[in-house]
Amino acid sequence: QRLDINRLTDIHQMDVQSALDQMRSLISGRPHVVYKTAYYRKQTKNHWARDDPAFVYLQAAFLVFVSLAYSVAFRASLTDGIAFLFHSLVWNWLVAGAIVATIARELANRHLTTTQSNTHVQQTVEW
Q1: What is the rounded distance in angstroms from the CA atom of residue 120 to the CA atom of residue 11?
Q2: d(Cα 127, Cα 122) in Å, to the nearest integer?
Q3: Residue 110: exposed, middle, or buried by beta-carbon count in 10 A (0-12, 13-18, 19+)?
Q4: Predicted TM-score (pTM) above 0.70
Q5: From CA 42, how far away is CA 95, in angstroms rounded?
Q6: Which of 50, 46, 60 minimizes the C-alpha distance to 94?
């Protein structure tokens, strides 16, 4: 699929309310609701992933807010606060998330997907 930069950066193209509802469902202990919407998306569009990056942007924004609040609460200096924010956002969230997602994708594609007849669409887990 083609990467459309305008869609990645246009806030009007993002479904922020749906992303917030998914976050609320995950936090409140109802992941089956998020699974059900992902399952319906898979049935209608034949992919599991969301069309817009709203969930990722909101998650990053919340992480920035919490990192700054943590730095203020513990009276960290400006450079320590920026270093903590950078470490939290880049290393803990982005790099560790990419590593876990890659390993989980490989394991799922090797051991959890089934091979059906040639008439079915090939099922693979997306990264």
Answers
A1: 36
A2: 15
A3: exposed
A4: yes
A5: 27
A6: 60
pLDDT digits (tens, 9 = 90+) for 97-120: 999 999 999 998 888 877 666 666
Contacts of 7 (CB under 8 A, 6+ apart): 13, 52
User: What ranges in 4-53 are assigned the alpha helix state H?
Assistant: 5-9, 16-27, 31-45
DSSP secondary structure letter of residue 87:
I
Structure tokens at 97: 């998330």
22 by Cβ neighbours in 10 Å (0-12 / 13-18 / 19+) ranks as buried
In this structure, what token pair is assigned to residue 118?
A: 């040639």
| Position 38 confidence tier, pLDDT thresholds 50, 70, 90 | confident
d(CA 110, CA 37): 25
Assign 89 to helix, strand or coil: helix
